[in-house]
Amino acid sequence: MNNVMNAITHVLTEADGPLHYREITKRALASGLWKTRGTSPEATVNAHLSGSIKRDGSKSPFRKHARGVYGLATAGSSNGAASEDVENDDSSMSYTEAAVHVLEEYADGQPMHYRDITNKILELGLVETASKTPEATLNAQLHMEMQRREKRGEEQRFDRRGKGMFGLVSWKPTGLEGQIRKRNEEVRRKLHERVAELTPEDFEILVGQLLTALGFEEVEVTKISSDGGIDVRGTLVVGDAIRTRMAVQAKKWKNNVQAPVVQQVRGSLGSHEQGLIITTSDFSKGAREEAQRPDAIPVGLMNGQQLVSLLIEHGIGVRRTTHDILALDELREGEE
Questions:
Q1: Buried-exposed string 75-100: b where 16+ CB fall within 10 A, e elsewhere
Q2: What is the rounded radius of gyration, in angstroms, for the C-alpha atoms of the chain?
Q3: Which residues form the HTH HARE-type domain (predicted)?
């Protein structure tokens, strides 16, 4: 059994009961029994647990109790429920998260073709899919993620090496590209700080600007004295056919937004309105659960990091500078 499996087993042995894989990861790293340079340790733990159950069935030392929640198998326990749970589970990893796991654990620092990555993902059972062309799906999702992160000024996870080969950016030695990434991360951090330093009134105006850039119409920043808990209203129009009225509360906070705020926003919604909370900080677990409560109107949540990403994507508070950097490429087009 490798180090991560030893650490998982130790954590679950010491625990009072089943744990979510995120908590297992936290305790495994804190115990010092497992050390990793990987950028997604939680995905690695989830992959090992789900892979063990799917691969070994009743012989696996682990059992799945709920979505993302695992425990140790007990003597005489039936694997029927666990197997059925795994087969019908909708919490399998995304293609891109699975690709990160495969590259970190099996590539030995060398780029892999997306077909080989796909084969390993399917072999490990990391992704549940009915697609007849999973290789094409992975290739498309890798490219889409890279394009989206470039637009938002976010650090890339994948490095395209040509001819369908992909590696991880974290493998690359420091150099010009490393300096660019470091510079961009510094700009992101400073932009976040500047947004947090705005007055509440200016922050609401900024949120209005962002909504307009996102395609909202009829954007209106409400009066401070009579906003009823709603700071900005607007209508998202899609293709002149879909019109969604949105009521937004802007929270320029240092502390995490709690569940009562979500309830307040929901109670302030007008007829046919949907709610959205935008904060410079983040949301508590209770707030996220309340926002998605099945028997209530869902409320969208946007934390500080997501806010900064959208500001960068739409050129609000930042500007892009472009320099031509030459790099060798293939002389003949090859199969991707």
A1: eeeebeebbebbeebeebbebbbbbb
A2: 23
A3: 2-75, 93-171
